[in-house]
Design brief:
Mean pLDDT: 86
Largest sheet: 7 strands, mixed
Shape: elongated
Number of strands: 30
Distance between the termini: 65 Å
Helix content: 40-55%
Amino acid sequence: MAVPAALTEDQIYHRCPPEKLDFETTEKLDDLELPFGQDRMLRALEFGASMAASGFNLFVLGPTGAGKHELVKRFLANHAAGKPVPSDWCHLFNFLQSDKPNAIELPPGDGRTFRNDMNDLVSELKTVIPATFESEEYQSRIQELQEEVNRRQQKGLLVIQEEANANNIAMVSTPAGFSFAPMRNGEVIEPEKYETLSDEEKELVEAKVEDLQKKLQQAIQQVPRLRKEVRERIHQLNEEMVQLTLGGPIGELREKWAHVPAVVAHLDSVREDIVEHAEAFQDDENGAPAGLLNRYRVNLLVDNADTRGAPVVYEDLPNHQHLSGQIEHRARQGNLYTDFTLIRAGSLHRANGGYLILDARRILTQPLAWESLKRILFSGEIRIESLERLYGLATTVSQQPEPIPLNVKVVLLGERMLYYLLSHYDPDFLDLFKVEADFEDDLDRDDASYMLYARMIATMARASGLKVLDKAAVARMIEHASRLASDQKKLTAHDRVLKDLLAEADHWASQAGEGHIGVEYVQQAIDEREYRASRIRERSLEQIRRGVMMIATEGAQVGQVNGLSVLQIGATRFGQPTRITATARPGKGQVVDIEREAKLGGPIHSKAVMILSRFLATRYAPMGELSLSASLAFEQSYGGVEGDSASVAETCVLLSSITGVPLKQSLAVTGSMNQHGEVQAVGGVNEKIEGFFNVCAQSGGVDGQGALLPASNLKHLMLNEQVREAVREGRFSVYPLSHIDQAIELMTGMEAGVPGTDGVYPESTFNRLVADRLAEFADVSKKKDDDKANSSGGNGGDNNRDD
């Protein structure tokens, strides 16, 4: 198999052609309303936002930092602009059940007007009704009632007094009440003289006094009845006066709100309640109590007076109270109290008739918020209840407002894993969120996309108030977007990274006093971001430079190779070479994965070693048993090892150990291998190659070193300027591999060899050495087995003789 040629500079980096950018600065570029390359997601959004059937809520899938929130909010805002404005909702006092406020629906904007009208009515009640009770007409009628009562009381007493006088008995008023005494010639008889009267006269007087006392008692017993009658007549008078007073203001309101029957009915209830509590307005000092007046106010729960189109609401803290609303309490004299005016709307109320955007991870981390949202969506109405009452944790009396019908489209934003987990574990999820809008991670990079991506960059810079970019700066941004996507034919769709890079480039341009962002400031921003995150990488390189970590970049060694790996620590990702070693001796076809045995190897790595073992057996011992006892190890690796990207390097180092042929330490290898020896693509090739390049650069300079990677990874290469310069000058080489034999030839300098029709490899080829060496291992193993068998047989014969 032919040795592949080293890649050229153009093959390891895809530049942005300047002629594809038809502008000088981004100032002339129009804004990009919606991002390109997201057709699938936009169609899903359009369908989900328009679908009226229940359960067709949306879940927007995508990685963190991809700009899902801004894109979805902008799309929904445009979509909702042509929708009708939803109704206002108010809570009113329920005069039949005070703890169950009524909900009333009003046309958009009327809620604020109705609230103001009722506030004006309350203010008017504070002055008009007390003034009515202070009027001369009211006072004179009250005086007439009092005088009539007095006359009726005096009339009864006068009759008794006249009857007493006619019988020579005086009715005397005392502090204790009325008493009777005998009288002669108009004067009361003294007790001494009364004793001188005959018994017959005394009996007549006492009988008459007793009769008068009974009549007096009857007259006095009529007083409470008279007073009750007066109170009733005063109450009727109060009602009459209040009715006359309210006729004007409430009559005007009834006429104004005649188009809303629910408001008219409420106004009638208000009038009846005011009339019923008319006496409460007669307090000269304080007027009507505040609690009574508050009953006539309006709690405007949802105000859409300033809304244009359907509302688009984002709830950044989606807990139960913020979603479904809450009932607040106030402290008064050490006690908590509440009423219907303290009921507060939730985001579901504000988004009713429109769209509610929620972050899936946030709502799932809030206690019981996810269950509350599902319950509301299933029921189709919003009930404002505290969690304590909802789950029976409290039994105190509180407000129970009338539920409000719900018509909202919920849009969840989250990572793909959350969507898949919810789909699998929550049986309700797919019933409620039937529309999947999948966000593209990367965008196609072709001739048609250059200007669109440039417009997207211009839109980002303009929206953030940044300076304009020149053509070269935009070209560098596009090239870096390919690096972020790890693909020459793709551009990253992660808004956050691009916006942060633009903001930093703008900062460096401002520091330099420039009026626009040039390519040098974009590059400075890239370099500064890399430097800030490079502490761990530099410490790792320092360990290699000082010899603590043993990595050879020159010469050749048997059973030793430089494998390439990627370390991910937080947001920092960098490549680092790792020494892989192997040992081989005759055995039973066992390849020991030391990483797995030490429980440091993951399942994918273990699978790769098994594939390697089967590849050796099939290739070099197709008709017999593979006689080999080998071991593989990642030297000085004390953490977990996972992935199959080292299987090509492991194959090379194991074959080197078997044959005794040294491997070039100036070359590092990455790539996965299947059972047929074909090299397969791996991830992180840019970081891996740059990591080995950095080690070479600090270990005496780059001169003849290189890296081997799968040919299928060629389109993923976007290497940095230092590597490109070394490739251009011929000091560093990058070789694409499609088969393990190519890696063998590059690493050993020997021809790999292709088997003939008889299955035998040609003389003086590497594969012939492997086959011959394994044949020697087999002979040694066979001889050992024969010796052991003979030894066992001889011992058996001796034992027979002993018997």
